[in-house]
Amino acid sequence: MMTIETNSPKPEPSGPPRHYRISPDHGTDFLWRAVEDIREDEQGYTEAEEELVSFPPSVLAMYDAWVEQYSDNWKRRVEDTQDYRAPVFSDRIEQMAWNVAGYMLAWRIVLGPGVGSVVYTAGSTDHLLERGNESVTERFLGDQIELLVMGAKGLP
């Protein structure tokens, strides 16, 4: 039986909107506060569970699955082989799919309560996602097309 998730009313965060960075870093949740946004009692790194508490539970579940996919690949392809120059993904198609999934999650976070922006890093390129800056998606998709054009096998 299919269930539909409904949003229960949650209080809007008080204070100015928060700004984040999402970038792959093995052993973390990839979620960092923007340097200029770190308050006196905070660190730069933060836990997804803390930051995504005001979102529907499915957002955190999808985010965790996305992080876990990267972490599992990294362990299998890099850590277990001790080849720290090995690519995390088996081919460019897998890498592109993971990049796009992360990009969509980053947009979902930007559209959430109390969030001003997210800088999402795919490969070595940063993408600033914020309301009113939807044209960044064209650049991101162009980057993903270039990744596919380079070939489906033999990641550098």
How would you characterize this protein structure?
Residues 1-25 are annotated as: Disordered. With 156 residues, the chain is an alpha+beta fold. The chain has one domain (18-35, 44-149). It has helices at residues 48-51, 57-79, 92-110, 136-149; strands spanning 18-22, 31-33, 115-122, 125-129. Helix 2 (57-79) runs antiparallel to helix 3 and helix 3 runs antiparallel to helix 4 (136-149). The termini are far apart.
Features:
156 residues, alpha+beta, four-stranded mixed sheet, globular
Task: State the gist of this model.
With 156 residues, the chain is of the alpha+beta class. 38% of the residues lie in helices and 13% in strands.
Task: Work out the number of β strands.
Answer: 4
Largest sheet: 4 strands, mixed
Molecular shape: globular
Q: What is the helix content?
A: 25-40%
Please report the distance between the alpha carbons of the first and last residues.
44 Å
Unreliable sequence segments: none
Question: How many domains is the backbone divided into?
Answer: 1
Name the quaternary structure. Answer: single chain
Class from secondary-structure proportions: alpha+beta
Radius of gyration: 17 Å
The total count of helices amounts to 4
Strand content: 5-15%
Order of helices and strands: EEHHHEEH
Mean pLDDT: 85
Spatial order of the strands forming the largest sheet: 2-1-3-4
Region (Disordered): 1-25
